[in-house]
Amino acid sequence: MTKPVEVSWFSALCDDDYEFLGQPDPALASSFEHCRNIVLTAEKGGFDNILLPSGYQLGIDPVGFACAIAPIVRRIRLLVALRVGEMWPPQLARQMASLDQMLGGRLTINIISSDIPGETLPGGPRYRRTVEVMAILRQMLNGQPLDHDGEFYKLKLDPPRIGTVSGKAPPFYFGGLSEDAREAAAEGADVFLMWPDRMEAVAEIIADMKARAAKKGRVLKFGYRAHVIVRETEAAARAAADRLISRLDDGTGAEIRAKSLDSQSVGVRRQAELREAASDDGYAEANLWTGVGRARSGCGAAIVGDPDQVLAKLEAYKALGIEAFILSGYPHAAEADLFARHVLPRMNHGALSLG
Q: Whose CA is closest to 3, among 339, 242, 319, 344?
């Protein structure tokens, strides 16, 4: 049997749920109830994990949400996005250990290399600070005393009395395409996340990151974050994609993209390049549609097709070395249900193991 992959969904904590892109709907606005319902839909559908995203100017706080949802979910893991520039690492370690206890050991962490709100740090030092935070978190969540003398933090502390269920740090998921981001991932991450790109570009990134990690005596796993539109036929899936952007004008799309604090990052620019190089109908390659990126700063493309086509695309990524997928669609609960019915039962999947 082939090795299982982790298949995750996305809960729209960042005011990012639409029936028509660029047309906010009060019924889909970010709220505890709405985002809870997405999580419960994903758990019922059989997904392994769910990303709780974070945006300083957008939506609701993922840590607070995770603590509230933890006693409600029974099986699904939570991938909690942490904007680490905004948080004091020792207290963050204590929070994460406590949250892992609430979840029975089902916590995973998405590290975001953020600024401190109101300040802007150049990429180089900001990513060096993120590497220090990952090292501090890992040591404390591994239950080890901390004696850290770094560029940004000088700390000598005992670990939190409350540890994780496993006694080890949860896996750190991390993404970024700049030189500084790639080096930070090779130094401190467990899972390197990518946004959509052509198959050859995905292969090149994986090869590059494997080599960088190997130079540091480390091994990375790889994840792929994409939207998905699956219908019973390819024609119906393409029609659903066209419908999604049918009320979007370019000005509104640009305004939405500009809201994100990372709207000028290397990864975001790459999504724009992918969109600009696509065919007239928005496809960068077979079944990879870039129309979503017209109204989204980050992950800007969707896998579009019938169940066989979507499954084949995911299997092709897996063959390149992808071991974790983080998927989403608009509206998020409805698309989670469609993917869970049409594709997920045909995938060999389960929680990602770092062993």
A: 319
Contacts of 333 (CB under 8 A, 6+ apart): 37, 38, 41
The pLDDT-based confidence of 261 (bands split at 50, 70, 90) is: very low
Task: State the residue for tokens 């494997």.
Answer: 210
How far is Cα 335 from Cα 310, in angstroms, rounded to an integer? 13
Residue 149 to residue 133: CA distance in whole angstroms: 12
Mean per-residue pLDDT, 36-54: 97
Provide the β-strand partners of residue 349: 5
> Cα(334)–Cα(203) distance, rounded to whole angstroms?
31
Which burial class, exposed, middle or buried, applies to 196 when counting CB atoms under 10 A from its CB (0-12, 13-18, 19+)?
buried
Which residues are registered as beta bridge partners of 305?
Answer: 230
pLDDT at residue 253 in the model: 54
Contacts of 118 (CB under 8 A, 6+ apart): none
Spatial distance between the Cα atoms of 10 and 231, rounded to a whole number of angstroms? 19
| Per-residue pLDDT tens over the stretch 65-77 | 999 999 999 999 9
**Sign of the alpha-carbon dihedral angle for 126, 111, 32, 246:** positive
Q: Is the pLDDT of residue 276 over 90?
A: no
Report residue 156: phi and psi, to 5°. Answer: -130, 105
In the numeric block, which tokens belong to residue 185? 């991932």
Taking residue 155's Cβ as centre, other Cβ atoms within 10 Å add up to: 16
Assessment of whether the complete model's pTM goes beyond 0.90: yes
Whether 258 contacts 215, CB under 8 Å: no
Asked whether 243 and 151 are in contact (CB, 8 A), the reply is: no
pLDDT of residue 265: 72
Q: Is the peptide bond before 24 cis (omega within 30 degrees of 0)?
A: no
Query: All domains of the chain, ordered by start, with CATH?
Result: 6-227+304-346 (3.20.20.30)
Token code pair at residue 189:
């991450």
Confidence of residue 251 (pLDDT cuts 50, 70, 90): low
